[in-house]
Amino acid sequence: MKALVYEKYAENNDFESILQLKEVPDPVPKSNEVLFRVKAAALNYDDIWGMRGKPLAVPLPHISGTDAAGEVIAVGEDVKSIKVGDRVVSHGNMSCRVCSRCTSGREFDCKKRIIWGFQTGPLWGGYCEIAHLPEINVLKIPDSISYEEAAATSMTLLTSWHMLVGRAKIKPGQIVLVMGGSSGVGIFGIQIAKLYGCTVIATASPEKLDQLKELGADYAVDHRKEDWHKEVFKISKELAKEKGEAPGIDVIFEHIGGSHFNKELTLLKYGATMVTTGATTGYDVPADLRQIFFKGINILGSTQGTRAELEEGFYWMGQGKIKVIIDSIFTFENAVDAHNKMLNGKGLVGKIILKPE
């Protein structure tokens, strides 16, 4: 089969120098595995980390790809819930399933947890014609969802759902600030908050603000302005007057980090919550501790989520309550252009999809 392979790490983000479309052996499913023909796969930022070899040195030779969807062509003898012909999508969070953390519903904290297509290998990821995964790591796709939509959803929907529902436990009527609303996780963050009856303020660069409104955000703010947080607080004051409450934000959906973090802290109400996963603009952030302890703020970390949470998200997608935004589609042959577009980020809204042909 054909697969996107690299055998060394890229210097200075020169992905073209390492990424090759090569013939590799077809996989043979183990007794607990499902084999599926990949119809679509989605890019994630860990693909870039992998090609850099930082922050983790991934196994070489390497096939990236954590989110892949396709049609099942073979199953192992012990597989019970999946059959040939089923339409499936990957659940890339691979854990042992038997430790105390896994069995208590915290599979994302498993000491043996690895991310398929990032930490797995050699030559084990989704950017190939035929992929294989344990039965527990695939989900059936609702009939109303395309392969492209499913691939664009898996990791980002799971991450967003776990942040807001699993960790922050959002409630109807809350004011939720979604930072980076045009990103993969941000797009779902907006829609999940609206699904739960929240008022949503979302941020993005100026050319993307109208798209945030189309996704359901009640307000859209340009976070590239130096005083963007003052605009958010002004909106919260207007909302507070209507309800007779104190101004501020109830829940902040954070994955940007960098210089925004301290400004975000100032926006939170007493007893409010910030839930964070990732730091695309920098992880070494200043924090005014007074904002945290005086106001009794909850700062929650969040990583991935559970298979059950992903199933919940796909249920609501199947009901048409959560939409997928696909920015662009590339073939494997044009994978370098796809990765460069993701790295650049200019004008990017939604997910980038790769297809075998």
UniProtKB/TrEMBL annotation:
Q: Which Gene3D superfamilies match?
A: Medium-chain alcohol dehydrogenases, catalytic domain
Q: Which segments constitute the Enoyl reductase (ER) domain?
A: 13-354
What's the superkingdom here? Archaea
Q: Which SMART domains match?
A: PKS_ER (SM00829)
Q: Which UniProt keywords apply?
A: NADP
MF-aspect GO terms = oxidoreductase activity
User: What is a single Pfam family found in this protein's UniProt entry?
Assistant: ADH_N
Write down the PANTHER family for this protein, in alphabetical order.
Answer: QUINONE OXIDOREDUCTASE
Q: What is this protein called?
A: Alcohol dehydrogenase, catalytic domain, GroES-like family
